Amino acid sequence: MSPPAEPISLAPFAWLVLYLFVLAAQRVSELVLSARNVRGLVARGGREYGQAHFPYVVALHALYPVALVGEVLLGGARPGALAPAWMGLWLAAQALRYSAIWALGERWTVRILALPGSPLVRRGPYRWIAHPNYLAVAIEFVSAPLLFGAWRTALVFSLASLAVMSVRIRCENRALAGSEIGP
């Protein structure tokens, strides 16, 4: 007679559902805030840049949770011993992203909009880092999947994000350089 099979723990799935709920709530609230800020910036003469690469940003963020769920449910990814460390890193990324959003205030959007004649923001994390929001996203694409043991998702989406963000950061730097107040 064979020994009884180990019961499958539902805990990783419950944590995954909670994470996906938090992720969805964050992204929806950020899209609402961004839309409001875009309307205000456009009304004040803001101009959008980088529309051509924006669909890649959207695709990256839309496919990420699908890949994560697939790797956990179909690929058997499970949290490892370092899960608490990955959670801490993910929480640090959240703090960085929300401090960047706070620092930019009405100028924060998911798109690249420059307001001619406006000085660059130099408060909050922008005192030390040129693109703290993008750093936060990069940290998220590593830490969140690894929290669930989904190393393939972490690898693929980190590399894809690196490619998309390299284009985006160059575009944003050009847009901001052309819109800021001179010395």
Textual characterization of the structure:
It is a single chain. The protein is mainly alpha-helical and 183 residues long. The protein has one domain: Four Helix Bundle (Hemerythrin (Met), subunit A) (Up-down Bundle), CATH 1.20.120.1630. The protein is 66% helix and 3% strand. It is built from 5 helices and 2 strands. Strands 1-2 form a two-stranded antiparallel ribbon. The N and C termini lie far apart (82 Å).
Structural class: mainly alpha
Task: Could you tell me the CATH topology label.
Answer: Four Helix Bundle (Hemerythrin (Met), subunit A)
pLDDT averaged over residues: 92
Rg, nearest Å? 19 Å
**Percent of residues in helices:** 55-70%
CATH architecture descriptor:
Up-down Bundle
**End-to-end separation:** 82 Å
- What's the level 1 CATH class? Mainly Alpha
Number of domains: 1
Can you count the beta strands? 2
SSE pattern: HEHHEHH
Broad shape:
elongated
The largest β sheet comes out as: 2 strands, antiparallel
Record the strand order, biggest sheet. Answer: 1-2
Figure out the total of helices. Answer: 5
List the uncertain runs. none
Q: Estimate the strand proportion.
A: under 5%
Can you summarize this structure?
By secondary structure, this protein is mainly alpha-helical. It has helices spanning 11-43, 54-73, 83-104, 132-147, 151-179; strands at 47-49, 112-114. It contains five helices and two strands; from the N terminus they run αβααβαα.
Give the key terms.
183 residues, mainly alpha, Four Helix Bundle (Hemerythrin (Met), subunit A), 5 helices, 66% helix
